[in-house]
Amino acid sequence: MLVHVRLFASYREAAGMGHFTLELPPEATVRDAIAAIVARHPLIAEGRQVVIAKNREYVDADAPLADGDEVALIPPVSGGATGTAPRIAVSETTLSVDDVMNAVRDPSHGGIVVFLGTVRDHSRGKRVTHLEYEAYAEMAERKMREIADRLEREHAPARIAMHHRIGDLAIGDIAVVVAAGAPHRDAAFSAARQAIDELKSIVPIWKKEHSEDGAIWIEEHA
């Protein structure tokens, strides 16, 4: 059978390509796919624990594969609305704080908490010149929506919106906007904090830091 492989961030650079087709035996599992991919591109596995998604969902190594499945190797990640703006977005354009706030506005809400993640000029003792973000956009938006939906249930009747920018960002640019609206401030603060923490933990978006000494993918929650 044939499966379609997608690589991102440091894995894409290690392989020298972002996608290819892999031929596997009829009864192959995710574990077999990982072994075949690493055999073809050994640099992918150097000192790393490989995580894989099948058809845009995280799966374990024993998950079966079928002809035509899409599998994606996931490097460690870098860490319905009443308004007209989308609740969830991964975009190459400048983020609008107003759009994200409008996505969570509701007459029943007494507070809106907004978190902005911006590009700072230093990291790990080095001066940063700019950042580069890459995403598995389709899966990223799905995971962001799952996070928002769950937190809205946990903090009902809260509303959650998240927008993340990808591409090259200059110092001071907004990389991510998270907003949470709720009847009371405690729920809004809690939902916003949980949303950004989970986004940085599980959503497949990666950050590359460019400094005077070169560039490096940040494969930790930062």
Q: Report the principal-axis shape.
A: globular
Number of domains: 2
H/I helix tally: 5
The neighbouring-strand order within the major sheet is: 2-1-5-3-4
- Helix residue percentage: 25-40%
**pLDDT < 50 runs, ≥5 residues:** 80-84
- Class based on secondary structure composition and strand pairing: alpha+beta
Distance between the termini: 39 Å
Number of strands: 14
Order of helices and strands: EHEHEEEEHEEEHEEEHEE
Percent of sequence in beta strands:
35-45%
Which fold name is given in CATH as the topology of the largest domain? Aldehyde Oxidoreductase, domain 3
Can you identify the CATH superfamily of the largest domain? Molybdopterin biosynthesis MoaE subunit
CATH architecture classification name of the largest domain: Alpha-Beta Complex
For the record, what CATH class of the largest domain applies?
Alpha Beta
* Rg from alpha-carbon coordinates: 19 Å
Largest sheet: 5 strands, mixed
Average pLDDT over all residues: 90
If you had to describe this structure to a student in words, what would you say it looks like?
Residues 80-84 have low confidence and may be disordered. This protein has helices at 9-15, 30-40, 97-102, 137-154, 185-202; strands spanning 2-7, 19-23, 51-54, 57-59, 70-74, 88-91, 111-118, 122-123, 126-135, 159-165, 167-170, 174-182, 205-211, 214-218. The strands form 3 sheets. Strands 2-1-5-3-4 form a 5-stranded mixed β-sheet. It folds into 2 domains: 2-74, Beta-grasp domain (Ubiquitin-like (UB roll)); 88-218, Aldehyde Oxidoreductase, domain 3. It has 222 residues and is α+β, with helices and mostly antiparallel strands. Helix 4 runs antiparallel to helix 5. Helices cover 27% and strands 36% of the residues. Strand 3 and strand 4 (57-59) form a beta hairpin. It contains 5 helices and 14 strands.
